Amino acid sequence: MSKKLVLIDGNSIAYRAFFALPLLNNEKGIHTNAVYGFTMMLMKILEDEKPTHILVAFDAGKTTFRHKTFSEYKGGRQKTPPELSEQFPFIRELLTAYGIQQYELENYEADDIIGTLSLLAEKEGFETKVISGDKDLTQLSSDKTTVNITRKGITDIEEYTPEHIKEKYGLTAEQIIDMKGLMGDASDNIPGVPGVGEKTAIKLLKEYGTLENLLNSIDQVSGNKLKEKLEEFKDQAMMSKELATITREAPVGLELSELEYEGAENERLVKMFKELGFNSLLDKLGAVAEAENAELEDIEFKQLDKIEQDIFAKDNGFYVEVLEDNYHYADIIGFGVVNETAASTCLLKSRWNQKNSRNGPRMKQVKRLSMMRNVPRFHCVITASI
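Below the sequence we write its predicted structure tokens.
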């Protein structure tokens, strides 16, 4: 049986999930959008990749060995939002429930853990997939290692193989760090050579191959201003390349055999999803059957043939029911009004088989609901886009 290792950049994916989704919280007021997005991506990875081995790497802290080379490395980054910081413990708990190994290493970044383990996996004949939002990791691409970079949101993925890098940049994976040495990287505060952007860096590397060869041949470079910049900032360029280089010899205290994936603890996941309010994810864990078999409480109700004004009170809670995860585009199947007097529900005629469009049935339903303003002090929140 072939062995497949998946290495996930935990911090990068958590950040991506946090900023891709609107702020969400459960009934206890705990923010959950990063955990939810992380979970969705993790489910997709496990389903699509079917790894035999898996690990999520995290940054251990803000200071790494690179700060000895350049104290301003990653300087100027905004502080992690507290709404995200409070979700990291839940992400770690989620990984434990999934039975996925997680690891961090003092003085090193998650990139270095991934770089070290991917090289070890290549030597042991593994197929490796790296998942991140950080393009720095594309330097690890090889015939045995593919780097998947999230582009927008949490599902739009660009797959970096040596062939894709050649097609996109005209360079090899090994030249990614030379390109970073020249153009720098603002997100990590890597300075590079001022005035040299991606296009110029690629052009120079196509001609000279490596940063070292280029800096040894400055007198052959066309353009006096570019020559002056390369001469003046040659040491800074070499430092930038060093900063951008992922170490593949970090002292990672793990063997690949420890990363074998044996599956999730579903009961633990169900409990966690319920606590976080991830009801839409429970279906994927077979929790529906459990809910259907549970004893339901008898509820007294009265059926109305029409909406009557006396079901509304001074202050009302308005709820819209949909059957799909993405409530922005899902068909509305019903709505409810809740106040101190009663809880009333109304089911709309099924339109599941009709096409959704901005002028279609879904929009008519939303407009119909949003126009219900003729009741005394009717307060409502529409949970669908108009």
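The radius of gyration is 27 Å.
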